[in-house]
Structure formats: C-alpha cells, structure tokens
Amino acid sequence: MFPKEMEWILESLFDGIYIADHRGVGVFVNCAYERITRIPRQRLLGKSMKQVVEEGIVSHSVTLQVMETGQSHTIRQRVETGKEILATGNPVFSTDGQLLWVVTNVRDISELSALYEELQSNKAELSKLQEESPTVISVSPCIKDVVKEVKRVAQTDSTVLLLGESGVGKEVFANLIHKNSPRAKQPFVKINCTAIPSGFLESELFGYESGSFTGARREGKPGLFEIADGGTIFLDEIGDMPLELQAKLLRVLQDYEFYRIGGTKPRKVDIRVISATNQDLSKKIKEKTFRADLYYRLNVVPIQIPPLRERQADIPVLAYHFLNQYNIQHQRNVGIDPQVIHVFQDYQWEGNVREIANLMERLVVTANETFIKETDLPPAMLQSGGFAAPMGLKRYLEEAEKKFLENALQEHQSMRRAARVIGIDQSTFVRKAKKYGINAK
Question: Residue 351: how many CB atoms within 10 A of its CB?
Fold first, then answer.
C-alpha cells in the first residue's frame, strides 16, 4: 500500500502509528505501536476497528470518531494488555474531499501517571507548605529555602525588600511574612506604586485634612499608613515611586510619623514595612531616580525570589494546580497531554507564575477536546520551546523523513553508505538531501 521508503519513515518514528483505510480497516501498524501497546500488529491488520473494539482489544476507538465527524480527535484509550494510551486520530482526504485514511498516533501516558505519582509523593510536603500559606505552591528546594527565610524574618519587625522578576509572587511572600508575624491579626495593606496616579499617591499614602484641596472630603481622609497602623504595609513596585514622595517615605521609616496633606500635627504609626521591586535600584540610584538613603532603609533584609525557569520542578506542579483550579471555576473537565508539560519545561516563562496561571485558564476555557494538546498552545510557545507548530500529515512525514535521513547520514558519514544501509539509491538520497538542505560533512 505504501512505498517501501515511506514504511521506513513510519517505522522510524518514536510515536506509535496506526493507519486505517476509509472503511476503518487497519492497513498499517509500526513497531512503536507494538512496543507501546504490547499488541502484535497481526491482531489489528485487516480487521475493522469496530471489530477490534468488539473483541476488547481496545476500549474505544478514535478512528471511528474521526470517521463519524471528519475531524481530528484525541482520547484516552485502554488496551487489553492494561496499558493506558493517548490516541490522536487525524483524517486524510483526497483532493475531491473523500476520506482516504485515518492516521492515529499513540503515546504511552504512563509518563503522565509517573508525574501524578511524583506529585502524590510531594503531597504531604506540599500540604504542609500550603497550611503555612495556602497561596505558596511549590516543591522546589530554592522556594523552600525562601519560605524558611521568610518565616525566620517574619518573627521580627525588620524592614524587608523582596526582589524578583514580575510575576514571581512577591505579593504572596509579603502576605506570608505578615501571616507568620506577631502582627498577623492586624491589617495587611497593599499599595501598588504604579497603579495609583502620582498626583493622588501622596493623599492615598498619608491622607488629608478637611478643606486641604478642592474636592477633598469635608471630614478629611485617613491615608493607608494610618489604616495599616498596628499591622503591615506592603509597598509594591517601590522602584516606581515618584522622587518627591521618597523623602516623605524616608521620614516615615526613620521616625514612624508623618503629616496628612494640609495637616500641622504629626501622626505616629506602628507599622511593619515590606517593599518589593523588579527593578535594579542601585542602577536607579546612579540615574538619580531613586534616593540612596531610602534604598538603605528599605534594604535591611533583602530576599530574592527566583524566577520560574530556575524552578523546573514547580512547572508541572503549578500547571496541574491551575488546571484543577480553573476546571472547578469554569465547570470543565479538561486533562493535559504529557507532551504539553515537556513544552512548558522548555519554555522561558518571562511572566513567571502569573503567566502560567493566565495560560492555564485560557487553555481550560478554550480547549475543544478533553485534553489540552500541543496544538492548543500559542505558536510562540511552540517555536521557543523547539517544537514544531501544528502541521498536516504531508508536512509531518516530510519532517520525519528529514530527521531520518539526517540521522542516517550522521551515523554512516557518507551519503553513499547511508543510502545503502537504509535501502535506497544514492541518487535518491542526494536528491532528498538537497530538498531538505542536508549537507554531508
């Protein structure tokens, strides 16, 4: 049915391949399919997939689903040997739109089961960490070290500066410090220095007296420092605080007192200050956009939070955490292909935990199948992770052929020897190598 050369390519693939004709009758099975399912190809070839299901060889058929709908499908499938596999079926049509074949590739999801087992083995450790703070989701040693440091620092009233890229969870750790401190039952007040317009930031921080400016409340208004009295105030994105307000903040940190706008009476506060930034404050000091004296006041206990790309063990943990969270929130029941986790682990995650949370919500909401697959991921993620973007059967086979020829040439060092070993003419090898841009070294 297939040219010998095509069979070589299909046999070289790591994924299991099963091909049925337009009637659903098995016409090709590669050795990887036999290895993954432990089912000899003789039990599948020449049989209709309906018969294969009736005999209990497979639990249900993706081939039949594709034949019924004319569209690609992915299912979890159990075979009679007890193996559980992920099967993706794709239709192949003729130029006039007639179904020719259904090509199914299968993957052993024991890897996914192993990942679940790994997560289960970390469950006790993770539960303990979540009891201390329900918002910290991590099994990475570097994050556990940060949590230990945070717990030690929390028992004091020292000023803390949290450092790390955007999205690493600086607010989470600020909250963790507060919850583990003697001030835990007092207010925790967060101020995002970039979210409040600079013209309003002073009045938000320090409040104002009655009649201090047009539009002011008649009774005046307490600032966030007053509201936080007795508790903790968290100054997020401190590197973006306007220079003129930095001097007033410095006074608060030195004397723990301030004046409301329009006020003449100093107000004392008892607060613990935590600040955070993703900027290089020492560079901003040289640029004269951040006060050196304020920096030294804030930088009493600096805590660096590592980015997600340095916490590889946390990537699958976070992916499954957010998968579960958004399945519940959006009333979905979506799984995830193990290959997607591999893509995740090759990705740089410049937006860190915030980015993976947002992506998982998007995938849960938009997934058309019961499994999130590589084809559901943003193209930029596939390209950056070194994985091919979604492709048709022709392109898929061409990519496989190219890789097959490259491997043969690398192993046998010359096109002549490589052609002889894989069973094609040297002229054919040369022609195909030219097509794919493969050069002999």
Answer: 17
Strand order, beta sheet including 272-277: 188-192, 232-236, 272-277, 160-163, 301-304
Same domain, 208 and 252: yes
Tokens at residue 43, please? Answer: 């039990």
Picking from 220, 250, 222, 214, the residue whose alpha carbon sits closest to that of residue 235 is 250
Q: Are 249 and 320 part of one and the same domain?
A: no
Distance, CA of 268 to chain centre: 45
Query: How many CB atoms are located within 10 Å of the residue 1 CB?
Result: 9
404 and 346, same domain (yes or no) = no
Residue 441 falls inside a structural domain: no
| Residues constituting the chain | 441
Strand partners, 261: 208
Is the distance from CB of 253 to CB of 295 less than 8 angstroms? no
CB 267 within 8 A of CB 259: yes
pLDDT over 90 at 7, yes or no: no
Whole-prediction pTM: 0.61
For residues 129 and 138, the answer to whether their CB atoms sit within 8 Å is yes
Establish if 135 belongs to a structural domain: no
134 lies in a domain?
no
What percent helix, strand, coil does the chain show, rounded to 5?
A: 50, 20, 35
Cβ atoms of residues 81 and 38 within 8 Å: yes
Show Cβ contacts of residue 437 under 8 Å, excluding neighbours closer than 6 positions.
none
Number of domains present in the structure of the chain: 4
Written as six digits, the tokens of 202 are 């002073």
Range of the domain at 410: 393-436
Residue 389 pLDDT: 41
Q: Are strands 99-108 and 16-21 parallel, antiparallel or unpaired?
A: antiparallel
- Structure confidence by residue, pLDDT tens digits, 63-94: 999 999 988 888 888 888 888 888 888 898 88
Q: Which of the listed residues 305, 331, 363 is the one where a domain comes to its end?
A: 305
Q: Provide the pLDDT for residue 386.
A: 41
* Residue 185 and residue 103 in one domain: no
| 354, 244: one domain | no
Do residues 49 and 163 share a domain?
A: no
Q: Of 135, 233, 235, 242, nearest to 183 (Cα)? A: 233
84-93 and 73-78: which strand pairing?
Answer: antiparallel
The tokens of 218 are what?
Answer: 């008649």
Q: Based on the fold, state whether residues 286 and 161 are members of the same structural domain.
A: yes
DSSP SS3 for 346: helix
- Encoded tokens for 402: 């190219």
User: CA dihedral in degrees (233, 236, 238, 240; nearest 10)?
Assistant: -140
Asked whether residue 58 is domain-assigned, the answer is: yes
Q: Which two tokens stand for residue 169?
A: 């969870």
3-state secondary structure of 109: coil
